[in-house]
C-alpha cells in the first residue's frame, strides 16, 4: 500500500532511497501520466525496457503488475502491455495523483479533485466532531503546532497539515474516508506552490489559523462551526491552487 506524504516530501527536493522496484514504477507511471507513453500505445518489449531502466525481468514484471493494479496498463496475450484509458486509472491512488503534479497543468482535473473533497469532507468532519476522542484532539493540537512552527519549511508545514486531515479522517471511524487523503495531498501540494491569490507565507499563516479554530470546534463538539471552518479551509486551498 502506498502511503501519503511522498509528494509533499518531494517539494523540498528530498529524494527517497533508491529501490529498483519503486524506481521502475515511478519512471513508467510518470511517463504514462505525462504522455510520453500515450494512451492506447503498447509498451516496448521486456528486453528493451530492461535495458532502458537497468533492471531484471523479475523487477520489471513486478512493476508492471503494480501499474496494472493501479489501472494504468493492461497486459494482453500476444499483444503486450498496453496503456489503459484514463477512465480505468485509479485517481484515489496517492502515487497516481503525485505523478499528475509533475505533469502538464490540468485545471479540469484540479477542479474535479476539489469537488471530491467537497463531497467527502462534509461527512468526514461531521463524523469527526461526533466521535473524536481526547487522543484525537491532542494529536490535532500537536500537528497544528507543527504547522505554526514550520517556518519556511514547506515539507514540515505540508506534512503537518496532511496529518491533521488524517487525524480527522481517522477520528470519524470510517476507514473508506481515508481514501481521500491522496486527493488532499495533491491539492495541498498545488496550493503550497502556486501562490494564486496570496503569498506563500500569508497562505500558510491563514491555513494554520483556520486549523487551530477547527480543532477548537471539534474539541467542543460543535458540528456546524466545524463544518463551516473545514469548508473555508478547502475553499482557501482551492483559491490558491486553481
From TrEMBL:
It comes from Devosia sediminis. The keyword Transcription regulation applies. GO terms for molecular function: DNA binding; DNA-binding transcription factor activity. CDD domains: WHTH_GntR. It comes from the Bacteria. Keywords: DNA-binding, Transcription, Transcription regulation. This is FadR family transcriptional regulator. Residues 18-86 form the HTH gntR-type domain.
Amino acid at each position: 500500500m502506498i502511503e501519503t506524504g511522498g509528494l509533499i516530501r518531494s517539494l523540498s527536493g528530498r529524494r527517497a532511497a533508491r529501490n529498483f522496484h519503486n524506481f521502475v514504477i515511478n519512471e513508467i507511471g510518470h511517463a504514462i501520466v505525462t504522455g510520453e507513453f500515450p494512451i492506447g500505445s503498447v509498451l516496448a518489449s521486456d528486453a528493451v525496457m530492461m535495458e532502458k531502466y537497468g533492471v531484471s525481468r523479475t523487477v520489471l514484471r513486478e512493476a508492471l503488475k503494480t501499474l496494472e493494479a493501479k489501472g494504468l496498463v493492461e497486459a494482453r496475450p500476444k499483444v503486450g502491455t498496453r496503456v489503459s484509458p484514463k477512465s480505468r486509472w485509479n485517481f484515489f491512488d496517492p502515487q497516481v495523483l503525485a505523478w499528475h503534479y509533475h505533469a502538464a497543468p490540468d485545471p479540469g482535473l484540479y477542479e474535479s479533485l476539489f469537488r471530491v473533497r467537497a463531497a467527502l469532507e462534509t461527512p468526514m468532519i461531521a463524523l469527526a466532531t461526533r466521535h473524536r476522542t481526547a487522543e484525537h484532539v491532542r494529536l490535532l493540537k500537536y500537528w497544528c503546532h507543527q504547522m505554526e512552527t514550520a517556518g519556511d519549511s514547506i515539507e514540515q508545514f505540508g506534512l503537518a497539515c496532511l496529518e491533521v486531515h488524517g487525524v480527522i479522517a481517522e477520528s470519524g471511524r470510517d476507514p473508506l474516508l481515508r481514501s481521500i487523503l491522496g486527493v488532499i495531498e495533491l491539492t495541498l501540494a498545488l496550493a503550497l506552490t502556486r501562490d494564486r491569490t496570496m503569498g506563500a507565507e500569508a497562505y500558510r499563516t491563514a491555513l494554520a489559523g483556520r486549523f487551530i479554530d477547527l480543532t477548537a470546534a471539534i474539541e467542543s463538539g460543535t458540528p456546524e462551526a466545524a463544518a463551516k471552518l473545514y469548508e473555508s479551509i478547502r475553499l482557501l486551498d482551492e483559491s490558491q491552487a486553481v
